[in-house]
Write a structure and sequence with these properties.
The protein has 198 residues and is mostly helical. It has a domain at 1-32. 62% of the residues lie in helices and 6% in strands. The protein has ten helices and two strands. It has a two-stranded antiparallel sheet with strand order 1-2. β1 and β2 (24-29) form a beta hairpin. α3 packs antiparallel against α8 (147-165) and α8 packs across α10.
Length: 198
Amino acid sequence: NIWKLQFTLFDKYYPIFKIWFFYKPFVCIRHPDDIEYVRIMKLCTMEYSSSFLLFNKLQFIFVSRCIVSVLDAKWQSRRKLLNPTFHFAILQQFVDVFVKQSEDMTNSLKNTDDHIVNDLMFFISEYTLNTICETGMSTSPHKLGSLQQYRNAVHQMLELIFYRTIRPWLHYDWIFAFTPKGRQQMKHLKIIHGFSQK
């Protein structure tokens, strides 16, 4: 599993390491200070990095209609509209939802069969999505019905991004579209975008 391998490497070579995928170097960072530095320097350096652009292209396929994928210039122009949405006074009305979902996640962790939980991603993603549904969409996640299907599609898309990243011949969309994984991607994207439109 590439995802687990990545975290094993992060633990072994913390806080920064480089991986070569054929002829392309990928620098992997984990420390918050390094991430902040990259965010600041992104406009100066990363726009010209083919590796960064490749990963952004694959990621863009996944989140093509999400705010996360908006380019910096567009983000700067629309930031004034979005910032009030995340103002502390507005977020205060959702404190009960945050507390309830946090307690639910804690109870789920306590009730697991294993005494040690190695992978928190499942728990965090489940309750984060529940919180987003209740706060941003004003609906209970249980009313949406297809929530578990959506979660599975998101996890599968992350796997597909990593799968494509290490296979240069699949970086071309027209080749990838003819593969079984390309058809899987279309199926998962349909689920993800369908859920977002609900």
